[in-house]
Amino acid sequence: MDIYTIIFLALAVFIFLRLRNVLGQRTGNERPPPFDRTARNTLQGAPDNNVVPMPGKVIDQAPLAPSSDVAPPSDRWKDLAEPDTALAQGLDAIAARDSSFDPRHFLSGARGAYEMIVLAFANGDRRALRDLLSSEVYESFDAVIRDREKHEQKTETRFVSIDKAELVGAELRDRAAQLTVRFVSQMVSVTRDKTGTIVDGNPDKVADITDIWTFARDTTSRDPNWKLVGTGSAH
Question: Which of 35, 67, 117, 124 sees the fewest Cβ atoms within 10 Å?
Answer without folding.
Answer: 67
